[in-house]
Design goal:
globular, 2 domains, 0% strand, 186 residues, Rna Polymerase Sigma Factor, Chain: A, Arc Repressor Mutant, subunit A
Length: 186
């Protein structure tokens, strides 16, 4: 199998099929990341994913082999999402109504009540995740939904490894607290 890095080099040489292969490989996972990062705004996530791949094309000459490609791609997406929320006209506040993630729960033959409980829990996690400060949310999503290593997250966000660890720790603590509050309210 051709690596992401090899495909990036092929794109630099003008190979459009390599771009199609990279988009096919990464689109769905990138959409999931942006969906969670934007608080469940599917249309915005789709726009940001599309813009990420457009930016990839515009900046592919700056990609330097053998730098890992995937963290480089996610850095582009993260910066686009951050830029979106920095605009003065955009003010985002997570509300429960913004989240609708039933697709996170897979039907593997479980009884309907088990699936319903899993869907409700996934929704509560999504709401709690949306209420985290952006810096903590990014780290938690990159680590647990996108399964990047701490070192890769450091690269993607261009922050020290220690900062990644502290943001992850704080974010997880806040998620646990939110879930405990939800459990107590039930």
């Amino acid at each position: 199998m051709i690596t992401n890095e090899d495909l990036a080099c092929r794109i630099q040489q003008g190979d459009r099929d390599a771009l199609a292969a990279l988009v096919e490989r990464h689109h769905d996972a990138l959409m999931g990341y942006l969906y969670r990062t934007t608080g469940g705004d599917r249309a915005l996530a789709q726009d940001l994913a599309q813009e990420t791949f457009l930016r990839l094309m515009r900046s592919i000459k700056r990609y330097q082999y053998p730098r890992p490609f995937k963290p480089w791609l996610y850095a582009i997406a993260t910066n686009l999402a951050r830029d979106h929320y920095k605009r003065a006209a955009v003010r985002w506040r997570a509300t429960e109504r913004e989240y609708d993630w039933p697709h996170d729960v897979e039907d593997d033959g479980e009884p309907p009540e088990t699936l319903l409980v899993a869907a409700v829990e996934a929704r509560q996690i999504a709401v709690a995740l949306g209420r985290l400060p952006e810096a903590q949310r990014e780290v938690v999503v990159l680590r647990y939904y996108q399964e990047f290593s701490l070192a890769e997250i450091s690269q993607i966000l261009d922050i020290p490894l220690g900062t990644v660890k502290s943001r992850l720790s704080l974010g997880l603590r806040r998620l646990r607290e939110a879930m405990m509050e939800w459990e107590q309210a039930r």
